Amino acid sequence: MTDYEHYEAIVVGAGPGGAAAAATFANYGIETLVLERGVEAGSKNVSGGLIYAEESAPYTIDDLFPGFREEAAERPITTYRIHNIAGSKVESFDLTRLHEHDTEWSDAVLRRKMDSWLAERVHERTREAGGGLLTDVHVNGLLREDGKIVGITTDELDPITADVIVAADGVNSELARDAGLMDWDEPEEWFQGVKAVVDMPADVIADRFDVGEDEGAAHLFSGDLFSGVRGGGFLYTNRESLSLGTVFHLDSLVAERAEPHELLDAMLTHPLLGQWLDEDYTEVEYSAKLVPDSKKVALREPHFGRLMVVGDAAGQMQAQGPIIKGMNHAVSAGALAAEAYAQAKSRNSPEDAGTLYAKKLKREGVMQKLRPQGYELMRGITERDSVTDLVDSVLTSSVGRFGVRALSGQLERLYNTPALSSMIPDTRTPYVTLPTVIAEELGTRIRETNDVSPPDLEARIENLTYDTDIGNPHITVLDNSFEASGAAVSACPVSAVDFGGGCYREEFVRTNGSEERVVSLDTQPCVECGTCAVVADTEWTHPRGGKGVEFNQG
């Protein structure tokens, strides 16, 4: 074998999962190299985002990184509400009890601030064991010898070998795909999140959300304001800003030919939000990402050879109705992966680390949260189109509406039941039909006005920071016919049917007297969410290290 540089452990990605893995390796004295493709940890990462410390979790972020909450987080979330919307009528439920189930604490975070703080700690601790953290390095694949994984390859450096590799490289993981553990074939296995960070002084947040200095609020939105697309919206209070966004099932976005930025604007301009937003609305950053649906794709065996996969790269994102958790599971998985390797090595069988890691995920209850048994038992029935049509027809009938009114005193309690939340089917019923009927039958008409004028898509793109890798496009359209790749025109968060400045555009080309409908691509405004890799026929990779979009909030 070529004499490449060697480390005992390589961690790819410096988000919370990678940071947890690296810190745990360092705690065991294992020489660890961490590679991050952004100019700084967090510059490529986007989250809603709330990070939880679960009482039942084997590891929490503040266990591994003392001082995390004081230095790297935003506000503790002390109030959690969901708003069912039908036109201007709203019926709200307090979900604080559900939010606090199995919760030690939960904080709002901004990924650039959080991940960069974690990276400083990681670099200090891994350097003590002979490693360290390098940014601006895009790990593009796995190095193999005689068919076995022995290391990684990058765009910027010579190949590097390792005894163990932890892939924490996000939802668009090139290592998970290279190992055959993940694919991007089915839109119904993914969510797409779009987010705006909005400037708001701390005293204004305190007044409008009725929270103290060490308090924060989370609000969820569902019903008819999203044009029938399955999903919902969120609002989280940060120290001096708000995170507002929408998360939708990707297959529903495609089916409805809905445009993500317009769905976000529908929420931002709804009368309900007039109590929190006003004409001084200042959008600091627009961003987007794919989110794995753990109920369908969380890997039961997230390993292959020397490779272990954690976080979004392993599908470890729990999105079950109003329960939205991901970063905490990435932390548990990253620490358990490193722990598994250290223990397997101590038994002189490091090759068993992956199997031990999978066992730990199951034994510690992580997999049950990600892939709840109740959902898996019921989805074969509850997600049939015929069942959905029947349930919706009953709900919207006079009988169903009477039932909603009769249960009005019990609905909040039912919403706060963790077992029911874990069984919610991925259909229009819980996201659109039921909340709309609840609002129509029980809601109060909102009298507030909302004077918000969100930026248009062009302004949002122009406000982002890019270092375009001229001459090295990271996406190639393999089939530019509208049938194969046209869904990207509307589904891409920085494209739109009537907008000519985004990534994907629709065109009509005349050839020999016939007209063909095709799409064209410009990767310059790309936010690297990966949507087009799922809905279009493309060859998709991340840009080279330090290139492409750079998020300052995340």
Automatic annotation (TrEMBL):
Alphabetically ordered keywords of this record: FAD, Flavoprotein, Oxidoreductase
InterPro entries attached to this UniProt entry: FAD-bd, FAD/NAD-bd_sf, FixC-like
Molecular function as annotated in GO: FAD binding; oxidoreductase activity
Domain FAD-binding per the UniProt entry, residue ranges: 7-333
Signal peptide: none
Domain of life, per lineage: Archaea
Reported cofactor(s): FAD
UniProt keyword annotation of GTP-binding present: no
PANTHER family given in the database record: ELECTRON TRANSFER FLAVOPROTEIN-QUINONE OXIDOREDUCTASE YDIS-RELATED (PTHR43624)
Name under which the protein is recorded: Flavoprotein probably electron transport
Organism: Haloferax elongans ATCC BAA-1513
Lineage: Archaea, Methanobacteriati, Methanobacteriota, Stenosarchaea group, Halobacteria
